[in-house]
Amino acid sequence: MIVDLPESRDPISSFEAGHKLTEELVKQKRPFTAILAFDDLTAFGTIRALTKAGLRVPEQCSVIGFDDVATCALYTPPLTTVRQPMETMGATAVGIVVDGINAVLEKRETSALHRKVAPELVVRESTVVCSKNVHRWTDPNFFA
User: Fold this and answer.
1) Pair 42, 86: CB distance under 8 Å
2) In this predicted model, what pLDDT tens digit does every residue of 57-85 receive, in sequence order?
3) In whole angstroms, what is the distance from residue 55 CA to residue 61 CA?
């Protein structure tokens, strides 16, 4: 199942959207075992909504964020997240821009560049091994 976050320039809106969208998922009464959120704030909203619905994270639903903001390790439960190598990405971007500027100043050809950097999965306590996740809240009495 894929749910899109609404467009917003308000950084707090992702928490609220994660909360609201997770409430809507739970109301659909279609069991799921994990949620991969757009970012860590969305994941925090997701955890709040799951808890409010009586679902335990990670025992009944694993949650993964994206970005590894400072509060991830302090949240309850500590959030599993995907960390991007921001310093490497920034240095690479600056290098590409400087090379492009130098190419123009030196009147030489330049071409578009594409660089890939590997993210890192930071495993914390908001996830459990998938084999333990299967059918955790598929009991029909859960929705009674």
Assistant:
1) no
2) 999 999 999 999 999 999 999 999 999 99
3) 7
